Amino acid sequence: DLGAHVDGFIASVAHTVVVGSSPSTKIAGRKADILLAAHYASEAAFRLMKHGTENQAVTNVVQTIAESFKCKPITGMLSHQLKQFETNGGKTIIQNPNENQRKEHEKSTFQLHEVYAIDVLISSGEGMTKGMDSRATVYKKTNETYVLKNKASNALFVEVNSKCGTMPFCLRNLEDEEKACVGVRECVSHKLLEPFPVLFEKPNEIVARFKFTVLLTPNGPQKITGLPFDPTAFQTDNSIIDEKVKKLITSSTRSKPNKKK
C-alpha cells in the first residue's frame, strides 16, 4: 500500500502480482480465482464511481463478483473518500459487511468532484481477518488531546506534528526508531495516535488486493493511480454469470454529454 500527497492532496495505490504469470504461462486454481475476482470487482467499482450512485451499489457488485469466483471479500474493509490532508474524508464504502456493520454503516451518494481511494480485497477463504503477534509500524495522528508524561512520547509526538501532520507515517522513518517504539505506546494508549494493524487470514488462504484513487469528474470517473493487469495470464473454470454485471464491466467509463436544447 503506497500513498503520497502534494500540498495535502492524497493519492494511494496497492497491487497484487503472481510472480511468473503471463499469457504463455497461465496461473490456475485458487490464485487465479482471487486475482480475477479482485480485478473484475475493481473494474466494476470504478465504473460505478459516478455522481448520484449510492455507496451500497459498490458493496453489492463487489460481493456478487467475488461469489462468482467462489471467493469472499474481506469483511468490513472500507474504501474512503479523500480530502485535503484527510485519508478518511467522511464517506466510505464497506465490503462484505456482517449484520451489525450493514445496519450501522452510513449510506451515502457520490457527488461530482469527490475523490475516493477504492480498496478491494478478496480472499480464497471466509474473508475473516484478525490480528496476530505482528506489531503495527504505521500510525497516524488523531484529533484527540492529552498531556503526555513520558519524555520519549513527547519527543515522538512533537516530531510527528512537525514532519507528518495528519498523514500516516512509519516508525522507521522517524529520527530515532528505537525511542519512537518506546514513546508510541503512551501515544496510542491515550488515542493520540491510531495504529494501522497487521491483519491475517487463516493459514493457507490467499488474499488479493487492488487499490486505486479515482476522481469523479463531469466526463466520468478518472483513475489517477493503479497498475495494469492482464486477465489472460490467469485461467479458471469460474466466471461472472450476472448479465448486468458483465455489461457493467465492459461499459465505457466516460459520461455522455448533455445535449443542448
Automatic annotation (TrEMBL):
It comes from Daphnia pulex (Water flea). SUPFAM superfamilies: Creatinase/aminopeptidase, Winged helix' DNA-binding domain. Residues 1-83 form the Peptidase M24 domain. This is Peptidase M24 domain-containing protein. Belongs to the peptidase M24 family. Pfam families: Peptidase_M24. Gene3D superfamilies: Creatinase/methionine aminopeptidase superfamily (3.90.230.10), Winged helix-like DNA-binding domain superfamily/Winged helix DNA-binding domain (1.10.10.10). Signal peptide: none annotated. InterPro entries: Creatinase/aminopeptidase-like, PA2G4/ARX1, Pept_M24, WH-like_DNA-bd_sf, WH_DNA-bd_sf. PANTHER family: PROLIFERATION-ASSOCIATED PROTEIN 2G4 (PTHR10804:SF11), PROTEASE FAMILY M24 METHIONYL AMINOPEPTIDASE, AMINOPEPTIDASE P (PTHR10804).
